[in-house]
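Dear Dr. H.,

I hope your travels went smoothly. While you were away I took the liberty of generating a structure for the chain from your last submission, since the lab meeting agenda had it listed for discussion. I wanted you to have the full record in hand beforehand rather than looking at slides cold. The sequence, exactly as received, is reproduced here:
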Amino acid sequence: MSAAYEVDLRHHGDAEVGGGLADFAVNVRTGMPPAWLAERIRASVADLAAYPDPRPARRAVARRHGRSVEEVLLTAGAAEAFVLLARVLAPRRAVVVHPQFTEPEAALRAAGHEVERVILSKDFTLDPGLVPEDADLVVVGNPTNPTSVLHPADTVAALARPGRTVVVDEAFMDVVPGEPESLASRLPTGVVVIRSLTKTWGLAGLRAGYVLADPHLVGRLAEAQPLWAVSTPALVAVEACSSPEAVAEAEAWAVQLGEERDRLAAELTGRGLYVVPEARASFLCLCVPDALGIRALLRQRGYAVRRGDTFPGLGSDWLRIAVRDRPSNDRLLDVLGELGI
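The corresponding predicted structure, in token form, is as follows:
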């Protein structure tokens, strides 16, 4: 268990980009959304005079994961889900497993909750025994941002206890072919799953995500949520991306992504860098001496990567690199080679 130390929990990859830099800092798939999805979103503008109706999208998400409609709450991205949970829950002992996406902890602190951190060791594999037995709220990512580690579903489920809420951030689960470690379809008692459409479908600007939880908690979260929080275009996107055809399309891309990710990881490892093993998401986490200095030199050469020192449990020798297409990745490798890496 680690006491909280000061890092910028609100620093995210979007702060790294701009000014014409090649983007290896944001974990959103480039070249998206696809034409068929963009057209559906554009067509939804014709319905903007009416208030948003979430029912078709809720039904689509429920079918996608084999849940009941009452177990689904649509949100303006995963970030809103974390805020709603922080407003509704009243934990006596809240624990966030780090390194991971910092927004859950930031939301809890903003709502006035004290937060303890469990810091995982170098390979960042989850050990449920590290979590205090009396913790009544535990937050964990799977696969985890920024480490790209995919925890076994049974290991995550083992965190569940009577009287404890386990929040699992599965924002990157759809980049794992087959989603074998997802708890979305199992949803053990006390487990809350948060999903996002931002990453695979390139919809960061639309804000589209959802919560899967027991109907009682979904009802409490809905009461805390502003009316019509999810816009009509976002609802159209949620419904479309939950269809069997869209899921199959995402699966095909996830397979291709995995091949390129593994190639990039092997290239970096072959240069003597430590890359967190068994990466399964759309990014790599690596340890580089003087990572902040390397990041600055890359920016001078037109490349943005994500600093690691704003993630609790990492430090100034860590970077996160998004996996792009092979030509883009090769250009980054060439620049790193020019820097002696």
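Two observations you may find useful: The chain has two domains: 13-31+247-335, 36-243. The mean pLDDT is 95.

With kind regards,
E. W.
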